[in-house]
Amino acid sequence: MTDSASGDAPPASRHIDRAGVVIAAALAALAAVLVWDASRLSSTSMYGMGPEAMPVVVAVGLGILAIANLIDALRGNLPPRESADPKPVLLILGGLALLIAIIGLGGGFILATSALFVTTSAAFGRRAILADFVIALVMTTLIYLAFDRLLTLSLPAGPLERLL
Fold first, then answer.
1. Is 44 exposed, middle or buried (0-12, 13-18, 19+ CB in 10 A)?
2. Sign of the torsion angle spanned by Cα atoms 122, 128, 129, 131
3. Potential cystine with 107: which of 98, 102, 146, 157 (Cβ 3.0-4.6 Å)?
4. pTM (2 decimals)?
5. Residue 14 — very low, low, confident or very high, per pLDDT cuts 50/70/90?
6. What is the spatial distance between Cα 33 and Cα 27, in angstroms, rounded to a whole number?
7. Which residues of 131-155 are buried (b: 16+ CB within 10 A; e: fewer)?
8. Quick check: 117 and 91 in contact, CB under 8 A?
């Protein structure tokens, strides 16, 4: 169908992407929670920025993402989604649960972050679990050493960290 006067096709009807609106609302809610949580921190700094500055910066970024996502959702400009496969989401959530459990049980940063790395790579379709675990151990050990030795910042220590 073309417009008889100009020869152009009529504009496609746009629809509001409800999932995009929900995602924008979730991002805005997360930003609000971060600002609320940061406002409850006691400032130990006499001058300059205190510990509440970084959550506010992250909240501003989330707020910008929420606004941009909402605009695209209302315009119907978000790309079409693929079918919902829960397996990758469950793998990443399982990895986060492992991270929390390993740190909580005293396993330390290296093992906990390695578990998250392996489950995340599996969620993205990679099946080389042993190779991913070795890569994760090397990377997280280097990260731990950088934070511990160079930046003198402590990370959760476990049996591997005590060997270093």
1. exposed
2. negative
3. 102
4. 0.61
5. low
6. 10
7. ebeeebbeebbeebeeebeeeeeeb
8. no
**Token representation of residue 119:** 């489950």
The amino acid present at 120, given as its one-letter code, is T
Residue 80 to residue 154: CA distance in whole angstroms = 43
Q: Is the pLDDT of residue 13 over 70?
A: no
Give 30-41 pLDDT, tens digit per residue: 999 999 988 887
The DSSP secondary structure of 92-154, one letter per residue, reads HHHHHHHHHHHHHTT-HHHHHHHHHHHHHHHHTT---HHHHHHHHHHHHHHHHHIIIIIS---
- As a whole number of angstroms, the distance between CA 20 and CA 25 comes to 9
pLDDT in tens, 40-95: 877 665 666 666 778 888 999 999 999 999 999 999 888 887 777 889 999 999 99
Question: What number of other Cβ atoms are within 10 A of residue 49's Cβ?
Answer: 11
Residue 9 has pLDDT above 60, yes or no: no
Q: How many Å apart are CA 18 and CA 16, to the nearest integer? A: 6
